[in-house]
Amino acid sequence: MVGVAVLGYGTVGSGVVEVIEQNNDVVSARAGEKLYVKHILDLREFPGDPYENKVVHDFNIILEDEDVQIICETMGGVKPAYDFTKAALLKGKSVCTSNKELVANHGPELLAIAKEKNCNYMFEASVGGGIPIIRTINNALTAEKIEGITGILNGTTNYILTKMDKEGADFAEVLAKAQELGYAERNPEADVEGYDACRKIAILSSLMTGKNVKYENIYTEGITKITADDFVYAKAAGMAVKIFGMSKNTENGTLAMVAPFMISADYPLYMVNDVFNGVFVRSNMLGDSMYYGRGAGKLPTASAVVGDVVECARNLGNNVPVFWDAEEAKLADISEVSRSYFVRAKAEAKADVLAAFPGGEEVVIEGRNDFGYFTLEMKEKDFAEKYAALGDKVFMRIRVEK
Amino acid sequence: MVGVAVLGYGTVGSGVVEVIEQNNDVVSARAGEKLYVKHILDLREFPGDPYENKVVHDFNIILEDEDVQIICETMGGVKPAYDFTKAALLKGKSVCTSNKELVANHGPELLAIAKEKNCNYMFEASVGGGIPIIRTINNALTAEKIEGITGILNGTTNYILTKMDKEGADFAEVLAKAQELGYAERNPEADVEGYDACRKIAILSSLMTGKNVKYENIYTEGITKITADDFVYAKAAGMAVKIFGMSKNTENGTLAMVAPFMISADYPLYMVNDVFNGVFVRSNMLGDSMYYGRGAGKLPTASAVVGDVVECARNLGNNVPVFWDAEEAKLADISEVSRSYFVRAKAEAKADVLAAFPGGEEVVIEGRNDFGYFTLEMKEKDFAEKYAALGDKVFMRIRVEK
Questions:
Q1: What pLDDT shows up at residue B266?
Q2: Domain ranges of chain B
Q3: Residue of A nearest to B309 (CA)
Q4: Cβ neighbours of residue B349 under 8 Å, at least 6 residues apart?
């Protein structure tokens, strides 16, 4: 019997309890021991809830309970999750978390404690919801040198972009509908400005490099400026607009960024639509691989937490190695990267755009007062300078990823 | 130091040596101990090969060498691979294999020996080449009840179907070109008749059910009868033709089959083209997930073998559980399954086809002497009977998967 405690009885936490109970036969069989939820920590009471008698309000009950060997931290935020996690690991209890904020902020420290105490800190659910991308990197692609990871890591923005694409609607309109349906939060900033994806690509980048990639240093651009007009041109060019968290090993360090990109139909993430997530990995022996599934939601996220619980139960007293040191990774300067750009400009500014970016490709759509243009590949800093000089003659620019 | 022996210095075996040597820094770091290739078993000599001095011709040298703790079996075929594998496991040496034939024939027995001897029998490379689908099922989706697995599991046939689609060419013509390029073997039967995919879906089905699904009992249909004309209609309907290995848990047992299917553009495997493989998994908490990458080739396959080597090195003296019992799984009768069918028939037989399959949907292409038709959903046995009765009025039928 392995006792499990759940910290935070919100969406993910209640999902964890549901998965452990509903799939208990397979979960326990795979863990090698009967798993059961012993305590649920929450400030609130849950009268009438089938598990109300498991709810406690004092973390020390969990910390001091020797039956509890695995703790699921599904509270979110850094405080008090950090203190609870640290205390648990120091006691030799394994912790499984869905908390990307905490992992991105304190991953290396918490992993080092787990290693020292022969327990585990696992965070499959912190990136890509139910997609097993963390375990794939840590335990499956172990023969590979990973060269790059590109992910659609945020379901809310992917839903919004998919709707804008399919319905020709503008950002604000689709956001409002997404909020109505519960796909976007009332304060959508963390999603639409790319902050959520930024935490996630920081975690993936750290696992890719083995060093610490600080999310604060990752260039992050959201989707709020993308309009229905941009999609008109994307579609005319047979392309999609997606917001990527991207990280590549380059000669000059790790090139990490979050931004919208225009991609063609043969790009493996092109078909990742609606609330789905997808992660594309390039590595030196396998080449390209891709992982796709529900990147958010109660049960998919809870399933990832419980998958970690099973792995922790199989490894009680044994630390499963994770390579993520505290040493800071060197980040490459994104302004030095060469790529093509999509530019949408006023129709009357065509000569100026062609002069600024010669040799590119026009996208002609009859009867419009704007026009679309794909530049040749050029360095980001050179592009940015020339684009800025065009002032209000241009409406938008989106990076192109091939 | 963990010594590794490689059985069979062919394409995959030499790839295994290459991956262990070329990525030795990361591979050894992740294994927790220095990995090195001690012996290579092959009947041939390899004069001039950088590893020629490691080549031995007697398996007993490997079996009796206490430095060798992990053996990579990349020989293929059942004999003598089975004897070597069994002898190694009985000695407590872990075995990592790319040999689907052996795994499909003797998986449960070899897994039971590994369990008894506290070592491991791992076979990531036997299905999906470098795609970590086996580890995903065994070690990642452990909180899930898997309900179905559908895979594009054979790179050769996917390449052929992709070319037929893109170039409008006929099967024989594309096969000849594929043979020229080395994408198809001179005797292509195992691929084009679906036998290779059948072994692979048998392995995946066994892991899904936890029981033994015998490949001999899986209905298997190849792609040799598909013509350029069928693709004309598939494309007109916005669909693709793929050969799937498919397995679903149903009330009446495991529904397993290998056959060509017509799928629409929103099916997650639609974008899996050329020599790539993709595996689509449906499970009860996560819902749909998909795994995509190179399903064959020297280095991708070798990478999967070496990933297993790392996992074995991390678990020396410890059996990582795999749920695949010798007990035979009950297979469902495919003739009871309901689905829609694409039918291509002689133009003058339209009235007969409509009479046999009322209420379906026609695909009209002007100026042709055949026509395409999608039936309503109906049981396979009912469809088969009516289709047979149409005799030479019909050219082809392809199952439709949604």
A1: 87
A2: 2-129+298-314, 143-291, 334-400
A3: A143
A4: B390, B393, B394
pLDDT computed for residue A266 by the predictor? 87
Partners of B286 on chain A (C-beta within 8 Å) are: 130, 293-294, 299-300, 303-304
Strands (E), B265-391: 276-283, 287-294, 338-339, 341-346, 361-363, 370-374, 378-379
| CA–CA distance, A178 with B296 (Å, rounded to integer) | 41
CATH architecture, domain B2-129+298-314: 3-Layer(aba) Sandwich (3.40)
**CB-CB contact of B297 with B98 (8 Å):** no
Complex prediction ipTM: 0.95
Facing residue for B303 by CB, picked from A20, A144, A290: A144
CA distances from A392 to A66, A173, A346 (A): 66, 24, 8
CA A336, chain centre distance (Å): 25
- Integer Cα distance of A273 and A183 in angstroms: 14
3 state DSSP class of A276: strand
Within 10 angstroms of residue B186's Cβ, the number of other Cβ atoms is 5
For B87-196, list the strands marked E by DSSP.
Answer: 94-97, 121-122, 146-152
Q: Which chain B residues have a beta carbon less than 8 Å from that of A139?
A: 135, 139, 311
Cβ–Cβ under 8 Å, residues B169 and B228: yes
User: How does pLDDT run across B190-218, given as a tens digit for each residue?
Assistant: 999 999 999 999 999 999 999 999 999 99
pLDDT exceeds cutoff 90 at B152: yes
CATH 3.30.360.10 is held by the domain A144-293 = yes
Mean pLDDT of chain B: 97
Query: Two tokens at A178?
Result: 């997404």
User: CB–CB of A292/A304 below 8 Å?
Assistant: no
Query: Given B22, B142, B286, which is nearest A310 (Cβ)?
Result: B142
